[in-house]
Write a structure and sequence with these properties.
The chain has helices at residues 5-20, 23-35, 42-54, 58-71, 76-88, 92-107, 114-144, 154-163, 196-201, 203-214, 257-260, 263-268, 367-383, and strands at residues 221-222, 244-251, 254-255, 284-289, 294-298, 305-313, 318-322, 325-328, 335-337, 343-347, 353-361. The protein has 391 residues and is an alpha+beta fold. Strands 1, 2, 3, 4, 6, 9 and 11 form a seven-stranded antiparallel beta sheet that branches. Strands 5-10-7-8 form a four-stranded antiparallel beta sheet, with no helix packed on it. Helix 1 packs antiparallel against helix 2. The chain starts with a helix and ends in an 8-residue tail after the last helix.
């Protein structure tokens, strides 16, 4: 409903006073306006809240801001005034709620009036102060409880980093089969896989077999290749590129001639719980990433497996990220990770990096579940041999 001309003139005068910093003159004009025809005008109430806050009247600020937000929950000045008055009372948690709402709303606008632009800077500074205060209290309380970063429970530290905004949560995003109720773990604890001892112990023997294969250029081929009749990404730099290449010892569940050339590598994997899916797995390969190459963020197809890396040739400045954890490969140090969580690899060195890669069953799956998952995937493949349910 349009306001009467007299009320509009009253509000315009109050706004001019506000912009001039004359809070004393602005307040009675606004109070007269909201007591009359502007009683349902959210902007008038919000401006009154801002004026009352400038004058140090917290109670009046609270009432006016609440009224503005009832009339318009997206009122910028209403949210800012409410946040400021709560912050003045040291109600930091509640103030942070309104500051967050104000920042979100103001950040979506192309431009802001000078007072709201200044308010945006003030709101961000207040959020930083509140976050610092909360963090300080948390740190003190956790220290008193015995917590020590780097040595206390890894999972708790991860939760703490997410809460503090230092990290973000990454979830499983399999492209094909999602198996429910499996833990969302980026890198699995090494001690969970005692059979990796034998794998790591064979590092030198594997490296010798790898070096012999590296002399045969034909043994490696691009890991990603254009598939006739299937969609491709011509914009992706590593398709059909030897910058990311592989030499398979087992491919799609079948042994290759290269496995015969690497008997000690295969012997070291004898006790690994390799996935067994006809036509799909295991996949065992030497994976080569050339200098400067970057495997962009991506996720795997099924979350019933883990992928293992054993680094064999690893120059400095080679990094691997799974979710929000980034590691550098160390020669002879094996790890297992969930490849349905976003991951990427980068070789920032001047030399080639080579790791042994193989896939294993998730340790949480029972033997029955493994048989059923294998049967399911094999049935899909039997119906449509080109179905991409395993990468």
């Amino acid at each position: 409903m349009a306001l009467p001309p007299a009320t509009r003139a009253l509000l315009q005068a109050a706004l001019a006073d506000y912009r001039a910093g004359d809070w004393v003159s602005a307040r009675p004009r606004l109070e007269e306006a909201v007591a009359g025809a502007a009683e349902s005008d959210a902007d008038a109430w919000a401006l009154l809240a801002m004026v009352c806050h400038r004058l140090g009247d917290a109670e009046a600020t609270d009432l006016a801001a609440d009224r503005a937000l009832v009339l318009n929950p997206r009122s910028l000045r209403g949210a800012l005034a409410k946040a400021d008055v709560l912050a003045s009372r040291r109600a930091d948690r509640e103030a942070n709620f309104y500051y967050s709402a104000f920042i979100r709303l103001a950040g979506a606008m192309a431009s802001l009036p000078p007072d709201l632009a200044e308010g945006l800077a003030r709101a961000r500074a207040a959020q930083d102060r509140i976050a610092s205060g909360i963090q300080g209290l948390i740190d003190a309380q956790l220290q008193a409880a015995g917590y020590a970063a780097g040595s206390s429970d890894r999972r708790f530290t991860h939760a703490l980093d997410i809460l503090a905004g230092r990290k973000q949560p990454y979830l499983q995003q399999p492209k094909a089969l999602y198996y429910p109720e499996l833990p969302n773990i980026q890198f699995y604890p090494r001690e969970q896989f005692p059979w990796m001892d034998a794998v790591e112990a064979a590092t030198d023997a594997m490296t010798a077999e790898l070096n012999a294969i590296l002399e045969d250029e034909a043994a490696f081929a691009p890991y990603l290749t254009t598939q006739p009749g299937l969609p491709s990404r011509p914009d992706y730099p590593l398709i059909d590129s030897m910058d990311w290449s592989s030499c398979f010892l087992w491919k799609d569940g079948a042994e290759t001639a290269n496995a015969v050339r690497c008997p000690q590598t295969m012997a070291a994997l004898e006790h690994a719980p390799l996935c067994r899916v006809k036509g799909r797995s295991p996949q065992i390969m030497f994976s080569q990433l050339k200098a400067g190459a970057h495997i962009e963020p991506h996720t795997g197809f099924v979350n019933t497996r883990l992928v293992c890396h054993l680094p064999l040739i690893v120059p400095p400045d080679c990094h691997f990220r799974v979710g929000n954890e980034t590691r550098s490969w160390e020669r002879g140090k094996c790890w297992a990770f969930d490849d349905t969580i976003e991951h990427e690899a980068r070789n920032a060195s001047a030399r080639t990096r080579v790791v042994l890669i193989f896939d294993i069953w998730r340790p949480e799956l029972t033997e029955e579940e493994r048989v059923l998952v294998s049967t399911l995937l094999e049935a899909i493949d039997a119906y449509s041999p080109q179905a991409a349910v395993w990468d």
